[in-house]
Design brief:
Length: 492
């Protein structure tokens, strides 16, 4: 019989308010927080002790995830393949129609293509769940605004702090005492990858002084602390950092000699990192009056890509990490990956972590309604972040609502059911504790590649992010869902 919160209180003592305040203040002091609208801050929700993963599975993911990034790097520069594979999807999704038009503007078609001068810097987070039956499988690729590496590293440090300062309580709520923590240097490794690219661009022009890094952000951003932690890591290794919104950049960017990107009152820009641009609203500004919505700010992004600058995410990278491209690559035989420079063995390793996906069409809708176990599938559109997935019995009604011209914007994906944590844990949110008896975890592995080559100390791998949530909740985001920050212990 499963323990209830009431019976658990008889088995394990709840945490003292002193402990909760101590660790909550540690989180705030180390930037593990969200900014509030009144310029205050609140700490991110987190677990009191790490989750576990089998060591062999973790080592497999460390090996395969940089291979996925290698594949995506190559696919993102195969412009004919992108346009051919995603044309129908772009016609079914207004936002991706905008992205595809920008891609055509930059790269033309196969008969009229100019060489690109922007230097692709792929900072990617590949999200996995460790399914009870299938093992670890990819949930999605994140190639734009792939943040929270600093929060992932801080969560590892937070659990280490709790273990040192509150050892009895830490052991009481740990899954096992025989596990070992997985190292996590996501903040420094992502910074190293960015700095490597920025320095190479700087050297290309023979400029003196510090390389300059531009982070493109959303106005009134609440996730500024994760962003600032990365900036501090960059500053610590000799990189100047600046932040601007698309609206600001639309007035402040210009071209220098030899296609150099120049920012007003700053100078030449060496690397650009988009923490905005993954949704239509990022290109809208109420103060800009224009006949065609989103034209000015989307053209600002195009303007950046027309310069010699290290860039994440390029429009090509965003297209290559879409749900539709994930489906294309999942359905493709491993042999076809060889066209992008992978070996057959590397292709098989990637295929081993891809969960089954199906396009939405009349035949698959009929199959799903008549024969499928509806709780083994999830319906996804192209949206980033939470709120874009349909589960279980809600899938058929949603499919019935879709017009045929919308089908290509959606995909069916095998639903993953990860292991629940073997013992209950405590989630701390707003300095209050809650017992969670059915916590499951999602692991995001970061990679950094510049011009298709790894630029970290670990062959392209750059740290991890663990987000856990109750199994009963569909939305596991730290921002908007029931998710909490977590870290990882390895078991043999």
């Amino acid at each position: 019989m499963k323990n209830t919160p009431d019976t658990l209180q008889q088995i394990k003592p709840l945490l003292s308010q002193q402990l909760i305040e101590d660790v909550s203040e540690w989180a705030m002091m180390h930037g593990v927080a969200f900014k509030q609208s009144d310029n205050t801050a609140r700490h991110c929700p987190f677990s009191i002790a790490p989750t576990t993963l089998e060591r062999h599975m973790y080592q497999h993911l460390l090996k395969v995830t940089p291979l996925i990034a290698k594949l995506i790097s190559a696919v993102s520069e195969d412009h004919d393949f992108l346009q051919d594979s995603l044309q129908k999807m772009s016609q079914a999704d207004p936002f991706f129609s905008l992205l595809m038009s920008m891609h055509h503007q930059l790269h033309g078609d196969k008969n009229a293509r100019l060489p690109s001068v922007r230097q692709p810097l792929l900072l990617m987070r590949t999200d996995f769940m460790d399914d009870r039956e299938l093992g670890a499988k990819v949930i999605e690729f994140n190639g734009i605004a792939a943040g929270m590496a600093p929060f992932g590293q801080r969560a590892t440090q937070l659990h280490r702090y709790i273990e040192q300062q509150w050892p009895t309580q830490y052991q009481q709520w740990s899954v096992t005492s025989s596990a070992t923590p997985a190292d996590n240097f996501g903040m420094e490794q992502l910074a190293l990858g960015i700095a490597t690219a920025a320095k190479q661009v700087k050297q290309q022009f023979g400029d003196q002084g510090k390389p300059t890094f531009l982070m493109v952000v959303q106005p009134n951003e609440d996730n500024v602390y994760d962003q600032h932690l990365l900036e501090v890591a960059l500053q610590n290794i000799g990189i100047r950092t600046v932040r601007r919104t698309f609206a600001q950049l639309s007035r402040q960017l210009s071209s220098g000699d030899n296609q150099r990107l120049v920012l007003e009152d700053v100078g030449a820009i060496d690397a650009v990192y988009l923490r905005a641009g993954y949704q239509h609203s990022d290109y809208c500004d109420a103060e800009i009056v224009e006949p065609q919505c989103c034209h000015t700010l989307s053209q600002t992004r195009v303007f950046i890509e027309q310069h010699y600058v290290a860039m994440n995410a390029t429009i090509s990278q965003q297209l290559a990490t879409s749900k539709s491209m994930q489906m294309v690559l999942t359905m493709m035989p491993a042999e076809q990956y060889l066209r992008w420079g992978l070996t057959f063995e590397e292709a098989q390793q990637i295929k081993s972590v891809l969960a089954e996906m199906k396009p939405v069409n009349l035949a698959n809708i009929e199959w799903f309604n008549r024969h499928a176990d509806k709780h083994q599938w999830v319906l996804k559109n192209q949206g980033e972040g939470g709120g874009h997935c349909i589960f279980g019995d809600e899938i058929s009604p949603k499919l019935a609502q879709l017009e045929q011209n919308e089908y290509d914007a959606w995909a069916l994906m095998q639903r993953l059911y990860p292991h629940e944590r073997e013992t209950p844990t405590i989630a701390i949110r707003d300095a209050k504790q809650t017992i969670v008896t059915d916590l499951i975890s999602e692991i995001g592995l970061f990679t950094a590649h510049y011009q298709g080559k790894p630029v970290t100390d670990f062959s392209g791998y750059a740290g991890y992010l663990i987000r856990s949530k109750p199994a009963s909740e569909n939305e596991g985001g730290i921002h908007s869902g029931k998710g909490i920050l977590d870290s990882l212990m390895l078991v043999d």
